[in-house]
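Quick one: structure tokens for this chain, please?
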Amino acid sequence: MNDIRQRIDEITSTLPGGVTLVAVSKFHPAASIMEAYDAGQRVFGESRATELAEKAASLPDDITWHFIGHLQTNKVRLVVPHASLIQSVDSERLLRCIDAESRRIGKTTDILLQLHVAMEETKYGFLPDELTELLRGGILEECPNVRVRGIMGMASNVDDLSRIESDFKAIRATFDHIKAMSLPATGDFDTVSMGMSHDYMLAISCGSNMVRIGTTIFGEREY
């Protein structure tokens, strides 16, 4: 097994104060998560609803689970009871579904709105203008059982660092624009989740305060 403790220590030593490390544990076994847990890591990211529910049921209660993958509305009921933060809310329909399920179980669920700025058509998320129009329309007042904490996004999957930097800056600019709108329901709007194993330091330099790192911690995924 990789020396997960050492890798976590190395990563955390590079993170400025105020930046949260999400250890992306999707497709990795409970034993690897526990090695990271024993190293002091408490925030973990999963991308499949069933896998999140199973791990949350069997691992320590003080783990903070983030859901970071594309979430289908028919899987919301599996995720909402366990996720402290759903990072990948990419449609109005999904937002309303999370609100309804949260209301049903008596919970307020923190979410991030997923922004699409990358070149790939396969990536999910709102375009910047779509997102600001949605929020101006008062959806947050209509969905009191979700609390929008910020924005999540990914850069284009290219080798061009200038393009990646441009994407990160666009994500941060959208966050700043929404923050400046001072909407009544965005008082806790404080999170910019961007940056992964290969580009997290660039993301931080562009204004990220939450990074999602898997491969550098756990090695290649075990499918």
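DSSP finds ten helices and eight strands in the chain.
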